Amino acid sequence: MIPKSEFSGALNSNIRPARRGNHKIYIGMAPGVGKTYRMLEEADQLKQEGIDVVIGLLETHGRKETAQKAQGLEVIPRKTIIRSGMTLTEMDTDAILERQPQLVLVDELAHTNVPGSLREKRYQDVEVILDAGIDVNSTVNIQHLESLNDLVARITGVVVRERIPDRLLDEATQVVVIDVTPETLEERLVEGKIYAPDKIDRALQNFFQRRHLVALRELALREVADNVEEDAITSTPSDGFFSVHERVLVCISTYPNSVQLLRRGARIADYMRGRLYAVFVSHPERFLTKEEGLYIETCEKLTLEFGGEFLRVNNHDVPQSIASVAQQYRITQVVLGHSQKSRWELFWKGSFVQQLMRYLKNIDLHIIASEQTSSKQ
After folding, report:
1. How confident is the model at residue 365 (pLDDT cuts 50, 70, 90)?
2. pLDDT above 60 (res 376)
3. HEC-encoded secondary structure of 46-91
4. Distance between CA atoms of 120 and 9, rounded to whole angstroms?
5. How many domains is the chain built from?
6. pTM of structure
7. Are 286 and 141 in the same domain?
8. How far apart are CA 112 and CA 122, in angstroms?
9. Are 280 and 253 in contact, with CB atoms under 8 Å apart?
10. Among 129, 208, 333, 362, which is disulfide-ready with 248 (CB 3.0 to 4.6 Å)?
11. Residue 266 and residue 264: Cα distance in Å, rounded?
């Protein structure tokens, strides 16, 4: 936060603010996890510290604890809109810009505004507020992310209509996951702390089924982990970065044991709930035979069937190439075949594994023995 004095006075549309506002997003697996309550709780603390905080838009959904937590915070009155004989309300973005607080709280980021509003989506109003140099704290559920829409529909059978672009999380200053166990969320629902009594049974039979909540919780935790990891990548030297996800790299050669390695690598990735990669390093001065080329294509198709990504590198230094790929893709596990070199070859050329280990740090190696493994890499 920056001093209130820097925002004093009315907004002059001809003068660009010195900075864009900070955006903090509270995200959860489902309604009722406590996103809004946490946002209000932290806002109350900031107010006590002297920060000028206002509520731009709050949806309590009749939850008494949430409404009580909002007491003592200034509320910007909503804009009234008459449509088809009905009186509707929306967040008054212009009033917020005129008020110029240091921080504004905006609930339900994915909300679609009343037709005819200046902007279609609430997140677009938030972007206008941020561009004016005002900080925003907002809330959203994981199912509202655009890229997860199809997956959430498969999990829950519910097609979410209100969505936000993934870039909002990428651009956010901070993303906070509000996590509770599915059991705790079910208890809150049954106790009437989320929906009215007449909606509880229907919610339990549909969206709030235990298996749905378990899957949505994992999505929320993984999404935030990805966000944290991407931030770490941009701010941490590559040799000091530790991945929060497992990433398995299988080293492919032109020999039949590569299929065995791929299957083993896929099992490791599946067990660790990690991502699968396969790499084939070809020598720039050696052309593959037709049979070898077909075999590598088979390995590539198999990798894709396992849901992995197949990488091709053209370099004479195989260990160094594998190490470079491992660093670039933040690999945590490397799977390769056991070399059957003679002691004489090892004496003169050294072990391929030993060469690879010189390059790799903080990466686990899986050496898979096979009678078909050749000494040729």
Report:
1. confident
2. no
3. HHHCCCCEEEEECCCCCCHHHHHHHCCCEECCCEEEEECCEEEEEC
4. 29
5. 2
6. 0.61
7. no
8. 6
9. yes
10. 333
11. 5
In a domain, 373, yes or no: no
Q: Give the tokens for residue 69.
A: 């937590």
Both 48 and 20 in one domain: the answer is yes
pLDDT-based confidence at residue 4 (cuts at 50, 70, 90)? very low
Selection from 100, 1, 105 nearest residue 50 by Cα? 1
* Residue 304 structural domain: 247-368
pLDDT of residue 345: 42
The CA distance from 252 to 250, in Å, is: 6
Mean pLDDT throughout 192-205?
89
- Dihedral angle sign, alpha carbons of residues 226, 229, 231, 234: negative
Residue 271, CB half-sphere, CA atoms under 13 Å: how many? 8
CA distances from 35 to 58, 88, 251, 322 (A): 12, 25, 44, 43
pLDDT tens-digit series, residues 166-183? 889 889 999 898 988 999
> Which sign does the torsion angle of CA 293, 295, 300, 305 carry?
positive
Domain boundary among the residues 210, 235, 260 is at 235
Q: Which residue has the tokens 């140099």?
A: 133
**CA dist list (Å): 193 to 84, 183, 209, 339:** 33, 14, 17, 62
Give yes or no for a contact between 167 and 175, defined as CB atoms under 8 angstroms apart. Answer: no
Average pLDDT score over residue span 7-29: 69
Concatenated DSSP letters of 103-161: EEEE--TTPBPPTTSSSSBHHHHHHHHHHTT-EEEEEEEGGGBGGGHHHHHHHHS----
- CATH, residue 70: 3.40.50.300
Amino acid (1-letter code) at residue 346: L
Residue 152 has pLDDT above 70, yes or no: yes
Q: List alpha helices for the chain, DSSP H.
A: 35-48, 64-70, 93-99, 122-131, 149-156, 167-171, 182-190, 197-205, 210-235, 257-271, 290-305, 318-328, 343-349, 352-359
235, 270, 289 - which closes a domain: 235
